[in-house]
Design goal:
The chain is α/β, with parallel strands linked by helices. It has three domains: 31 residues; 63 residues, no CATH class; 198 residues, NAD(P)-binding Rossmann-like Domain (Rossmann fold), CATH 3.40.50.720. Helix content is 51%, strand content 12%. It is built from eleven helices and seven strands. α2 crosses α3, α5 packs parallel to α7 and α7 packs across α11. The chain is globular, with a radius of gyration of 21 Å. The structure holds NADP nicotinamide-adenine-dinucleotide phosphate (NAP) and 2-acetamido-2-deoxy-beta-D-glucopyranose. 2-acetamido-2-deoxy-beta-D-glucopyranose binds next to loops. This is Dehydrogenase/reductase SDR family member 13.
């Protein structure tokens, strides 16, 4: 039997209080900067891809709260409609709809029949084509914005145009190592795409931004094996941002007033960041645009 004296109980409570306070401050630090803009979006329409879960869904909730008509563009109807109900409930807005969009299919309908892997197709080519198909509408509705969620891992990416042009091998592979590289390449493409897009959009009042959302405790790990997931789960819960915090830089790029002159730039933690030379190379960005047009059948 253990007996606690009043003093001991007091001490334990004090220690527990300090531990909780330290954890809360630590979590606040981990969750980073918040989007401070109070911008309302009544009369505006926003399309959010990947919005049935994770960061995308948290972003959709915030945009709906601001009064926008929010389109959840997801590939799976059941997941999409479940998310609509959830976003409506959390935002208190009924102005949320589902539209089916399979970013892999978008890409498959292009002229490539082989080669490019799924992750590269979805992360870069699918969004490249979607953006291009919406450009005229975006110009008509200006001021408007295009926000592309890249990643810090773009720093590890590289572009090999010989492989890209011949459609062979680029973005194919299943091992964790090759997936890491493909992911990094595709995220570098997101940054370069935004760099080139900003140039094409000069004078239109349509602006664009790419960003790193932070390390987020989202559904991103659901495809990993059980062991890795078990290992990552407690680490992610403590050290990674929750999805609501993970949406803040996307929201900053989407709604913050006065960042229009930063069109084409890369953001992290709700602030513009410097990128390596390879992520702002004019010639490479232009070439990537041309190759991407060919790959998705736009030219
Ligand atoms: N989590 C992080 O730590 C982290 C860090 C840096 C960058 N990011 C970036 O943040 C973005 C969101 O990540 P997340 O963590 O929120 O990921 P997530 O929870 O795994 O969500 C990914 C979303 O993409 C959708 N998707 C996948 N393939 C698709 C396709 N073919 N067509 C249409 N939609 C498709 C998924 O839909 P289904 O449910 O149908 O699969 C899901 O809604 C990604 O671009 C990711 O690269 C994340
Ligand atoms: C862009 O916005 C400014 C300020 O609202 C406006 O004066 C200008 O006409 C717009 N340009 C175009 C191309 O829409």
């Amino acid at each position: 039997m253990l007996y606690f004296t009043f003093e001991m109980a007091e001490e334990i409570l004090l220690i527990a209080g300090v531990v909780i306070a330290v954890l809360m401050i630590f979590r606040m630090y981990i969750c980073g900067e918040r989007c401070k803009s109070k911008t309302k979006l009544h009369g505006k329409t926003v399309i959010v891809t990947g919005s049935n879960t994770g960061i995308g869904r948290a972003t959709a909730v915030d945009l709906a709260r601001r009064g926008a008509r929010v389109i959840l563009a997801c590939r799976n109807q059941v997941c999409g409609e479940t998310a609509v109900a959830l976003v409506q409930r959390e935002s208190g807005s009924k102005n949320v709809v589902f539209m089916q969009l399979d970013l892999a299919r978008v890409y498959m309908q292009g002229t490539t029949e082989d080669g490019l892997g799924l992750m590269f197709g979805v992360n870069h080519i699918g969004h490249f084509l979607l953006t291009n198909l919406l450009l005229d509408k975006l110009k008509e509705c200006a001021p408007s914005r295009i926000v592309t969620v890249s990643s810090y891992l773009h720093n590890f990416g590289n572009l090999d145009f010989d492989i890209l042009r011949t459609h062979k091998e680029f973005g194919v592979g299943e091992s964790p190592a090759s997936l890491f590289w493909i992911y990094s390449h595709s995220k570098l493409c997101n940054v370069l795409f935004t760099h080139e897009l900003a140039k094409k959009l000069q004078g239109t009042n349509v602006t664009c931004y790419s960003l790193h959302p932070g390390a987020i405790n989202s559904d991103l790990y659901r495809n990993m094996n059980k062991m890795t997931r078990r290992l990552l789960k407690p680490i992610a819960a403590l050290f990674f941002k929750d999805v609501e915090a993970g949406a803040q830089t996307t929201l900053h790029c989407a709604v913050q007033e006065g960042i229009e002159s930063l069109s084409g730039r890369y953001f992290s933690n709700c602030a513009v960041q410097k990128v390596k030379a390879k992520a702002q190379d004019d010639a490479v960005a232009k070439k990537l645009w041309e190759v991407s047009e060919t790959l998705c059948g736009l030219s």
